[in-house]
């Protein structure tokens, strides 16, 4: 396999992304050991929510403030008292429901509970919707329910007796979210409901290209060893050439796995030109140019959603787009559109994060936007989502096409900058995005392109173009990983590999992210895809050996985080820490590389952490991944490094001590009563196979066991009168599943539940 790696590395080095020459270090270059950027990685501790009231009011909704990082036993104790926990709010709090005042008193007496506060209607509304003066103009909003399994459509229709709520839509895969049009008075009425936790505006998504936007130097990218063979890439954009397979652009012949019309019924054509250009950058075969102008992954196949409607607007139904692409086999998705909402974590961001949490083997790329000339904090949503790869644009090398494509190591002046509204580092990475040559729709006017090349191809500029170039690169990396035995690599692993191997352009990280993509270096990283995950207070330790001190050492931790509560002022839910000890004993913290010392701050904002050393010393580094606060665990993660993994003699014993195997103790314990007749548990299954469950109890009672998929469809049940109750379920798809334990007879049952997942 070593020989194959070298062969592919040599081939990959011919790609455009890797042949851009360095321009030299600017006069204001950083000091050695530092990255550039005025970036704080530590947010002030406190409740990341608008001020609440501890005054008791007639409502079941409260916020429970805990005393520190969330432990599983605390959650279980609250649930056993009859508390239903909802969204997590940093730091250490949950929106929750309580049945009565007695439950509240019992909760307030718990040693780990600091305070119980009323969750007020004001806290549910986005500041953008808090207009005054009785405005009767209807606006489009998303109403988000407390219970993710409750159909908000039915709830909404019961809230008002008249027609104040219009055009209610509820995604099939997110029934607790309804999109509707309503005025101020109706919004004020809706937020009084205990079934509602948030009302937020719906972002208006637009294409992320300038009057013309960028794509790939196909002739330079065509000779890569990995072509994306066996990979399926999803794209949602304006359309695809004529919209008919029989008359499609020659570069897409045999490349289209599925073409879906979402914006205009039965019409997937591209009258704009953006979608055809984007798709060609990924899977274009170059057939119309004798193989000269190819996409980065011509060996891959395409699932395409045409989302431009008859009015020229984009129909961005995130859940439908991603779910349909996933069901067609896509594990990579490229999106060159978004809202220019200045770093907000919007409804679109939430929906992307939610889908990726439930489908951790999907990698989604999103264009950062083209508002960079307006300064920092211009990145748009959904590029602000935690779990996507947000892509900014660097300049291409086509000096004859203008000043925006003549300096390879410059971030394009219009590429949107970070940070996000809550201080997270975005974009994640940059790739060439100016003067990109790709497929041209036969129905699009020439004015929609930066420059026309011929009837079949045209140039465009923008982060819209950088994103599909990198999406094709992800297909190449994923093909490599599968060849190496990683049959189902996580999106977190792909992100960790890309960010570890990126070329540092010595730009502010708010502009370049972790650097410019380097595909050859990406497949040379050493990596671990830890799918079981860890919980609060657990640690896992690794050893990394460095024998070459002539190049920087990068160690990157990435994880697909639980979706944020949209009312929270900070988006991070599960907080992992990366800690590295050098051979000489120096301590380093992830992302603390802006100012020495590099161990006095711990990142509590980002779900990517990196230790980056320009001139590493030779020897063995100790790498620790720490579960600091995991309220929605367990949390899987991925690691990648430019160093080499080294097995220590005591490594297996150390991991065993710090992270006990699940099989040695019950997966869950609890108590069922006539008042609390059932308990639900969510689990993540990362590998197809048999899921084995058993539950036992000693009381004179009967307990049944059920398993549901993420859409609450029952898959299997065990309903005998025996203890233990045992159940084996064949899991065909990875993702989230729900286990329900039900008391069917008797006064109470103290149960213990055991579980073996397929990967065990």
Structural description of this entry:
The chain is 17% helix and 29% strand. The chain has 760 residues and is an alpha+beta fold. The strands form 9 sheets. A 7-stranded parallel β-sheet has the order 11-12-10-13-15-16-17, sandwiched between helices. Strands 25-24-27-22-29 form a 5-stranded antiparallel β-sheet, with helices on one face. A 4-stranded antiparallel β-sheet has the order 2-3-1-4, covered by helices on one side. The radius of gyration is 26 Å and the shape is globular.
List the helices and strands and how they pair.
Blueprint: H1 2-12, H2 16-19, E1 61-66, H3 72-80, E2 84-89, E3 93-97, H4 101-108, E4 113-118, E5 139-145, H5 152-159, E6 166-169, E7 177-182, H6 184-190, E8 196-201, E9 206-207, H7 218-221, E10 232-237, E11 256-261, H8 274-283, E12 301-306, H9 318-327, E13 332-335, E14 337-338, H10 347-358, E15 363-367, E16 389-394, E17 429-432, E18 436-439, E19 451-452, E20 457-460, H11 463-483, H12 491-501, H13 509-512, H14 519-522, E21 526-534, E22 539-546, E23 553-558, E24 575-581, E25 587-589, E26 608-613, E27 619-629, E28 635-641, E29 644-645, H15 651-658, E30 668-673, E31 678-685, E32 689-696, E33 702-708, E34 714-718, E35 725-731, E36 735-745, E37 748-756
Parallel strand pairs: 10-12, 10-13, 11-12, 13-15, 15-16, 16-17
Antiparallel strand pairs: 1-3, 1-4, 2-3, 5-7, 5-8, 6-7, 9-14, 18-20, 19-20, 21-28, 22-27, 22-29, 23-26, 23-28, 24-25, 24-27, 30-37, 31-36, 32-35, 32-37, 33-34, 33-36
Helix pairs in contact: 8-11, 9-10
Main beta sheet strand tally, sense and closure:
7 strands, parallel
Average pLDDT, to the nearest integer?
84
For the largest sheet, list the strands in their spatial order: 11-12-10-13-15-16-17
Spans of at least 5 consecutive residues with low confidence: 1-33, 209-224, 649-663
Radius of gyration: 26 Å
Number of strands: 37
Strand content: 25-35%
State the end-to-end distance.
27 Å
Sum up the overall morphology in one term: globular
Helical stretch count? 15
Q: Structural class, from helix and strand content?
A: alpha+beta
Helix content: 10-25%
């Amino acid at each position: 396999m070593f020989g194959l790696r070298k062969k592919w590395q040599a081939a990959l080095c011919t790609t455009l992304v890797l042949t851009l020459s360095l321009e030299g270090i600017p006069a204001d270059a950083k000091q050695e050991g530092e990255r550039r950027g005025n970036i704080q990685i530590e947010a002030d501790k406190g409740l990341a929510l608008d001020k609440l009231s501890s005054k008791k009011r007639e409502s079941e909704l409260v916020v429970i403030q805990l005393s520190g990082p969330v432990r599983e036993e605390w959650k279980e104790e609250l649930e056993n008292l009859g508390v239903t926990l909802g969204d997590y709010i940093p730091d250490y709090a949950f929106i929750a429901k309580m049945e009565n005042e007695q439950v509240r008193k019992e909760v307030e007496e718990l040693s780990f509970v600091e305070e119980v506060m009323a969750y007020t209607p004001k806290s549910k509304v986005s500041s953008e919707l808090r207009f005054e003066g009785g405005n009767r103009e209807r606006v489009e909003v998303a109403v988000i329910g407390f219970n993710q399994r409750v159909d908000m459509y039915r709830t909404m229709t019961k809230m008002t007796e008249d027609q104040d709520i219009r055009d209610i839509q509820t995604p099939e895969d997110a029934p607790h979210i309804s999109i509707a049009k309503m005025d101020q008075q109706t919004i004020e009425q809706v937020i009084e409901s205990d079934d509602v936790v948030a009302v937020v505006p719906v972002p208006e998504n637009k294409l992320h290209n300038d009057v013309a936007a960028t794509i790939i130097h196909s002739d330079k990218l065509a000779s890569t060893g990995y072509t994306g063979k066996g990979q399926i890439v999803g794209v949602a954009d304006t359309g695809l050439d004529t919209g008919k397979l029989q008359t499609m652009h020659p570069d897409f012949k045999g490349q289209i796995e599925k073409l879906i019309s979402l914006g205009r019924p039965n019409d997937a054509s591209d009258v704009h030109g953006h979608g055809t250009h984007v798709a060609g950058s990924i899977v274009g075969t170059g057939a119309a140019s004798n193989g000269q102008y190819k996409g980065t992954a011509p060996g891959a196949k395409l699932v395409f959603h045409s989302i431009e409607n008859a009015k020229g607007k984009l129909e961005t139904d995130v859940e439908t787009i991603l779910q349909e692409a996933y069901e067609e086999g896509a594990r990579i998705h490229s999106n060159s559109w978004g809202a220019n909402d200045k770093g907000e974590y919007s409804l679109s961001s939430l929906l992307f994060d939610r889908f990726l949490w439930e489908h951790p083997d999907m990698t989604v790329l999103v264009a950062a936007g083209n508002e960079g000339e307006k300064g920092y904090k211009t990145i748009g949503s959904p590029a602000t989502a935690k779990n996507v790869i947000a892509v900014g644009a660097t300049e291409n090398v086509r000096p004859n096409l203008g000043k925006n494509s003549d300096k390879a190591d410059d971030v394009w002046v219009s590429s949107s900058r970070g940070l996000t509204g809550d201080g997270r580092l975005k974009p994640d990475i940059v790739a060439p995005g100016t003067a990109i040559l790709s497929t041209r729709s036969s129905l699009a006017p020439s004015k929609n392109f930066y420059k026309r090349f011929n009837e079949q191809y045209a140039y465009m500029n923008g982060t819209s173009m950088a994103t599909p170039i990198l999406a094709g690169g992800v297909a190449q990396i994923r093909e490599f990983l599968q060849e190496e035995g990683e049959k189902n690599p996580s999106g977190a692993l792909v992100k960790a590999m890309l960010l570890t191997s990126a070329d540092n352009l010595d730009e502010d990280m708010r502009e370049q992210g972790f650097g410019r993509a380097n595909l050859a270096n990406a497949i040379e990283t050493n990596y671990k895809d830890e799918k079981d995950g860890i919980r609060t207070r657990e640690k896992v330790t690794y050893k990394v050996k460095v024998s070459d001190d002539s190049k920087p050492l990068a160690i990157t931790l990435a994880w697909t985080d639980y979706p944020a509560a949209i009312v929270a002022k900070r988006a991070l839910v599960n907080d992992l820490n990366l800690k590295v000890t050098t051979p000489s004993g120096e301590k380093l913290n992830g992302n603390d590389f802006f100012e020495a010392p590099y161990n006095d701050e711990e990142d509590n904002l980002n779900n990517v952490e990196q230790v980056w050393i320009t001139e590493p010393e030779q020897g063995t580094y100790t790498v620790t991944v720490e579960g600091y606060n995991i309220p929605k665990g367990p949390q899987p993660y991925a690691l990648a490094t430019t160093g080499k993994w080294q097995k220590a003699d005591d490594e297996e014993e150390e991991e065993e001590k710090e992270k006990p195997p699940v099989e040695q103790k019950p997966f869950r314990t609890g108590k069922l009563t006539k008042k609390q007749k059932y308990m639900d548990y969510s689990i993540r299954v990362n590998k197809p196979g048999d899921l084995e469950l058993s539950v036992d109890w000693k009381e004179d009672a009967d307990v049944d066991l059920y398993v549901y998929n993420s859409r609450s469809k029952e898959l299997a049940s065990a309903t005998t009168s025996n203890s233990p109750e045992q159940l084996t379920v064949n899991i065909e798809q990875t993702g989230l599943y729900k286990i329900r334990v039900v008391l069917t007879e008797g006064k109470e049952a103290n149960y213990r539940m055991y579980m073996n997942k397929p990967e065990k």
